[in-house]
C-alpha cells in the first residue's frame, strides 16, 4: 500500500506543483498578504515571523489537495486511476502526502527569512513537530474542499477561500489571541490554525496563550477529524463524478 501511495504522490508532485492556482494561492498570496500587513507598521520581526510561518504553512498545505480531484475528473484521468487495483483511501493518502510535502518545503522559507532578520528559534524541536502535524492537518482540510463532485477547479477554490480567509483573520496571526476580547478568544478557539500559530509564537517569542499540550492535542484532533471526514465524504461522492 505504501508503494501505491508514494506512486500517486509522485504523480501529483509532477503534475500539480507548478499549476497556476497552486502557485498563486499557495506561494504568492500569503506573501502579498503579509507585505500588505507589514508595510507602514513598526512591528518587530519576532512578532511577524510566527504569523508569516503560520500563514505560509496554512496556504501552501491547502493549495494542492483541493485541486487534484476536480482536475483529474476534468482530464478523465480519474477513471483510469480508479480502474487500477487501488482503494479510495490510497488515492486520498497520496493526495494528502503531496500537499503535506509542499507545505513542509515552502514553510522553511519564512524560518530562513527570520534567521536572516536575526530572529532565532528558541524551541526548534517543538516548532518542527508542530510544522509536521500542522501540515498534515491542513492538507487533510484541503482535501475536504474537493469532496464536491465537480470538475471545475474554480468551484472548489471558491469554497476553499470562503473558509480559509476567515480562519486567517481569527487565528491570532495579525492580532495575538491575548489581545482579543472574550468573544474573540471564543471564536479563535474554533480554528485549528490558532493552535499552530500559538505554538509558533511559543517557539520563536517564548510565549503561548494556551498551554502547549492543549495546542498539540487540539491540532492532532483536528488532523484526525479532517482525515476521517475526507475519507468518508470522498468514498461517498466518488461515484457522482462520472
UniProtKB/TrEMBL annotation:
<feature type="transmembrane region" description="Helical">
    <location>
        <begin position="152"/>
        <end position="175"/>
    </location>
</feature>
<protein>
    <submittedName>
        <fullName>ABC transporter</fullName>
    </submittedName>
</protein>
<dbReference type="InterPro" id="IPR013525">
    <property type="entry name" value="ABC2_TM"/>
</dbReference>
<dbReference type="InterPro" id="IPR047817">
    <property type="entry name" value="ABC2_TM_bact-type"/>
</dbReference>
<dbReference type="InterPro" id="IPR000412">
    <property type="entry name" value="ABC_2_transport"/>
</dbReference>
<keyword id="KW-0472">Membrane</keyword>
<keyword id="KW-0812">Transmembrane</keyword>
<dbReference type="InterPro" id="IPR051784">
    <property type="entry name" value="Nod_factor_ABC_transporter"/>
</dbReference>
<keyword id="KW-1133">Transmembrane helix</keyword>
<feature type="transmembrane region" description="Helical">
    <location>
        <begin position="212"/>
        <end position="231"/>
    </location>
</feature>
<dbReference type="Pfam" id="PF01061">
    <property type="entry name" value="ABC2_membrane"/>
</dbReference>
<feature type="transmembrane region" description="Helical">
    <location>
        <begin position="125"/>
        <end position="145"/>
    </location>
</feature>
<dbReference type="GO" id="GO:0140359">
    <property type="term" value="F:ABC-type transporter activity"/>
</dbReference>
<feature type="domain" description="ABC transmembrane type-2">
    <location>
        <begin position="12"/>
        <end position="237"/>
    </location>
</feature>
<feature type="transmembrane region" description="Helical">
    <location>
        <begin position="21"/>
        <end position="41"/>
    </location>
</feature>
<dbReference type="GO" id="GO:0043190">
    <property type="term" value="C:ATP-binding cassette (ABC) transporter complex"/>
</dbReference>
<feature type="transmembrane region" description="Helical">
    <location>
        <begin position="92"/>
        <end position="119"/>
    </location>
</feature>
<feature type="transmembrane region" description="Helical">
    <location>
        <begin position="47"/>
        <end position="71"/>
    </location>
</feature>
Amino acid at each position: 500500500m505504501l508503494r501505491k501511495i508514494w506512486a500517486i504522490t509522485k504523480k501529483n508532485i509532477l503534475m500539480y506543483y507548478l499549476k497556476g492556482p497552486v502557485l498563486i494561492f499557495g506561494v504568492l498570496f500569503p506573501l502579498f498578504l503579509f507585505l500588505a500587513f507589514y508595510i507602514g507598521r513598526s512591528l518587530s520581526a519576532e512578532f511577524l515571523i510566527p504569523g508569516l510561518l503560520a500563514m505560509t504553512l496554512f496556504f501552501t498545505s491547502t493549495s494542492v489537495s483541493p485541486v487534484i480531484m476536480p482536475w483529474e475528473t476534468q482530464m478523465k484521468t480519474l477513471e483510469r486511476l480508479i480502474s487500477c487495483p487501488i482503494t479510495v483511501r490510497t488515492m486520498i493518502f497520496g493526495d494528502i502526502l503531496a500537499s503535506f510535502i509542499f507545505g513542509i518545503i515552502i514553510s522553511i522559507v519564512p524560518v530562513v527569512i527570520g534567521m536572516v532578520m536575526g530572529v532565532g528559534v528558541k524551541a526548534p524541536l517543538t516548532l518542527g513537530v508542530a510544522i509536521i502535524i500542522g501540515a498534515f492537518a491542513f492538507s487533510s482540510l484541503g482535501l475536504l474542499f474537493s469532496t464536491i463532485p465537480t470538475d471545475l477547479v474554480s468551484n472548489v477554490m471558491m469554497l476553499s477561500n470562503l473558509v480559509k480567509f476567515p480562519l486567517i483573520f481569527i487565528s491570532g496571526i495579525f492580532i495575538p489571541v491575548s489581545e482579543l476580547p472574550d468573544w474573540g478568544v471564543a471564536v479563535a478557539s474554533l480554528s485549528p490554525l490558532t493552535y499552530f500559530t500559538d505554538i509558533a509564537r511559543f517557539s520563536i517569542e517564548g510565549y503561548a496563550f494556551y498551554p502547549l499540550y492543549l495546542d498539540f492535542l487540539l491540532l492532532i484532533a483536528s488532523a484526525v477529524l479532517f482525515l476521517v471526514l475526507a475519507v468518508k465524504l470522498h468514498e461517498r461522492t466518488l461515484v457522482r463524478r462520472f
